Amino acid sequence: MNCLTTAWAAHKGELHNWARRRLSNAAEADDLMQDLFLKALRQGERFCSVHNARAWLFEVARNTLADQLRVVRETVDLPEDLATPADETDTVDSLTSCLPRVLLELSDEDRDAITQCDLQGIPQAQFAAARGLSLSAAKSRLQRARLRLKERMTQACQVQLDDAGRVADFVPRH
């Protein structure tokens, strides 16, 4: 393990500076450094056979940072002036009352694609596999089904759009 302590001593400062520049605070950089050292330590004697210890340490540090950033989901509150007014949301939400009847008017293939992928949330790749389609064919089928649904809902529910292209009004259909 002398090779690990030698490599760590030689590159620790440079690694820490690298981590500190990429993370928002020193504690996160320290955590990354600890994770990196533990990963190197777990290599045991295999670490001594690494041709370029510095390159190995930086590669593992980059991967560790990427893993940490994938987990972090920061949220930011929207300013009040960007929030959707309740009446716009209510209009679009109530438009869903037209959906069941209009879905019944679509072809079985279109209804199946929309129901499975959009309403039940089945991934398109899974939908494609279950139907014996390529992923590209499944995506095309779903895209065409969505267009036909939009056309049918616009016509059957008499959807009216405002100047910005948002739903302004419609005639409910049950």
Rg on CA atoms, Å: 27 Å
CATH topology annotation of the largest domain: Arc Repressor Mutant, subunit A
* Fraction in beta strands: under 5%
The ordered string of helix (H) and strand (E) elements is: HHHHHHHHEE
Instruction: Kindly name the structural category.
Output: mainly alpha
Number of domains: 2
Q: Which of globular, elongated, flat, extended, rod-shaped describes the shape?
A: elongated
Largest sheet: 2 strands, antiparallel
- What is the mean predicted local confidence, pLDDT? 84
- Give the helix tally: 8
Poorly predicted runs: none
User: Which CATH-level-2 architecture of the largest domain?
Assistant: Orthogonal Bundle
- CATH homologous superfamily classification of the largest domain: Winged helix-like DNA-binding domain superfamily/Winged helix DNA-binding domain
State the end-to-end distance: 73 Å
> Helix fraction?
55-70%
CATH class identity of the largest domain? Mainly Alpha
Q: What's the count of strands?
A: 2
Largest beta sheet: what is the strand line-up? 1-2
Q: Mind explaining what this structure looks like?
A:
The chain is mainly α. It folds into two domains: 70 residues, Rna Polymerase Sigma Factor, Chain: A; 90 residues, Winged helix-like DNA-binding domain superfamily/Winged helix DNA-binding domain (Arc Repressor Mutant, subunit A). It is 67% helix and 3% strand. The longest helix has 22 residues. The protein is elongated.
